[in-house]
Amino acid sequence: MADEPKLPTEEDIARLPRWARVAFAARCARQSLAAFTSDWPTSPEAHTRAVVDAVQTAERAAEMASPTLPGVGLPTVAAAAAQAADPASAANAFAAAAAAQAAAAAASFDPIAAAARAADAGVPTSTIRQDYGVVAAAAAQGGWDDATPVAPVIFEPLGRSVSDIPIGDFELSVRTHNYLRRMNLRTLGDLTRVTESQLLASKNFGEASLAEVRAIMAAKGLRIGSRVEDDDFTLVLRAVAKPGVTADAVRKHAVALFQVLNEYSLEKYGRRLTKDRFRRLVLEHTGVGV
Question: Are residues 23 and 118 in the same domain?
Answer without folding.
Answer: yes
